[in-house]
């Protein structure tokens, strides 16, 4: 087993966790998609084909691809993990003791791959083959979900994020995504690829209510050399940033966290939808959301976890100082103001760097891709007409678990 370590955003990517959510996407409808945080329903087969091209592009670049559904099924092979997951995801408090017990008994007898797909893809009442004596089951309509689908598992970046020698298992801000975290808790605790490995769990491994301390991995950029850049967005709070920063400082894994204040808006729900790192001295950025004077703080701390926050006059200077580089180069979203806004919405800035100067991005963002090319950044294009409707690009759809530093 190779090392579980992510030392940067741009070093050679070696292993990555992804999810191809077919069952969950089949459960998206015009009446429920907004509650499930999607703007539209996706063409399921085409979305799957696009995801296959994405993962094939990763493999062609020498990246080992891990699939969430398979990892979860293999985790369920371990009796302790299976019992914990069923008790957690099908709890007495969620369903009432009678129906919860009946449902757990039914799920417990399923093949583990099918169970994995139900836990991630949902279970409508019409597919339940047993009759419980509980009140709850009789109140369900056939199209009601007993287990809600988790289509946002597609964006594996958010639920957990690896930062240097450890992982943050993130308390998610939105109810529609909070069950995702338990799947990652189980995988990192019990799956043979992770169990017994030497890594730190910074945040979120315990089942508890983190109140306003929420954080999602799309806001966390491991920019290297002991520095981490985090956006405070509609999903990530300053409390969540300080909680993670404190754990990073206590463990000695990071020496500085730079926090940016983002608008609390869906169009820029995470930092990586408006800014990514593509080469040591180069970032992609949408300046309408991240102007030069965006509010920015540098956080430092000690082994006791104490946080010292200092407001900075320039986020660019703060990054230059943290990375020890000269003047940063900023590649702004391409086209005129209308074209740039459209391309940002379609994740032109949300690219996944494979190695310095080589990124995966959606082929539809022609103006921004042209600017990458002129700046010496190679774009490996993938289709995203369907996948992009979920408001996430190549970086969102990937959770690196092994990446070189810089």
UniProtKB/TrEMBL annotation:
Pathway: Amino-acid degradation; L-arginine degradation via ADI pathway; carbamoyl phosphate from L-arginine: step 1/2. The keyword Hydrolase applies. The keyword Cytoplasm applies. Keywords: Arginine metabolism, Cytoplasm, Hydrolase. It is an enzyme of class 3 (hydrolase). Pfam families: ADI (PF02274). GO terms for cellular component: cytoplasm. The active site is at residue 396. GO terms for biological process: L-arginine deiminase pathway. Its EC number is 3.5.3.6. It is found in: Cytoplasm. It comes from the Bacteria. GO terms for molecular function: arginine deiminase activity. It catalyses: L-arginine + H2O = L-citrulline + NH4(+). Gene3D superfamilies: Arginine deiminase, L-arginine/glycine Amidinotransferase, Chain A. NCBIfam families: arcA, PRK01388.1. HAMAP family: Arg_deiminase (MF_00242). Belongs to the arginine deiminase family. This is Arginine deiminase. It comes from Vibrio aerogenes CECT 7868.
């Amino acid at each position: 087993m190779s090392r579980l370590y992510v030392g940067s955003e741009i070093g050679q990517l070696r292993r990555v966790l992804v999810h191809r959510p077919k069952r969950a996407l089949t459960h998206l409808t015009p009446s429920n998609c907004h509650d499930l945080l999607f703007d539209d329903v996706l063409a399921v087969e085409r979305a799957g084909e696009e995801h296959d091209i994405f993962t094939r592009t990763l493999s062609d670049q020498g990246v080992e691809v891990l699939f969430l559904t398979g990892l979860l099924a293999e985790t369920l092979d371990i009796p302790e993990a299976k019992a914990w997951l069923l008790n957690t995801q099908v709890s007495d408090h969620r369903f009432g003791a009678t129906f919860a017990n009946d449902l757990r008994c039914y799920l417990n007898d399923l093949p583990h791959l099918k169970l994995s797909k139900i836990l991630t893809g949902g279970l409508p009442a019409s597919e339940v083959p047993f009759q419980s004596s509980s009140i709850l089951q009789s109140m369900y309509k056939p199209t009601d979900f007993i287990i809600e689908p988790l289509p946002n598992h597609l964006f594996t970046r958010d639920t957990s994020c690896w930062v240097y020698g450890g992982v943050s298992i993130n308390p998610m801000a939105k109810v529609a995504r909070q069950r995702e975290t338990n799947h990652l808790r189980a995988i990192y605790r019990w799956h043979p690829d992770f169990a017994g490995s030497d890594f730190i769990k910074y945040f979120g491994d315990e089942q508890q209510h983190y109140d306003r301390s929420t954080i999602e991995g799309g806001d966390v950029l491991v920019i290297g050399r002991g520095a981490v850049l985090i956006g405070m967005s509609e999903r990530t709070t300053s409390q969540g940033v300080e909680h993670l920063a404190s754990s990073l400082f206590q463990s000695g894994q990071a020496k500085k966290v730079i926090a940016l204040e983002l608008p609390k808006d869906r169009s820029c729900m995470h930092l990586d939808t408006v800014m990514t790192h593509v080469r040591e001295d180069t970032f992609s950025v949408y300046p309408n959301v991240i102007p030069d004077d965006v509010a920015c703080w540098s956080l430092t701390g000690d082994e006791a976890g104490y946080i010292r926050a200092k407001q900075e006059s320039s986020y660019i200077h703060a990054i230059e100082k943290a990375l020890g580089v000269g003047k940063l180069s900023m590649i702004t979203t391409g086209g005129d103001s209308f074209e740039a806004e459209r391309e940002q919405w379609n994740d032109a800035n949300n690219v996944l760097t494979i190695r310095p100067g080589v990124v995966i991005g959606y082929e539809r963002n022609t103006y921004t891709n042209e600017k990458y090319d002129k700046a010496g950044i190679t774009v490996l294009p993938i289709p995203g007409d369907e996948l992009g409707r979920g408001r996430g690009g190549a970086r969102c759809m990937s959770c690196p678990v092994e990446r070189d530093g810089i």
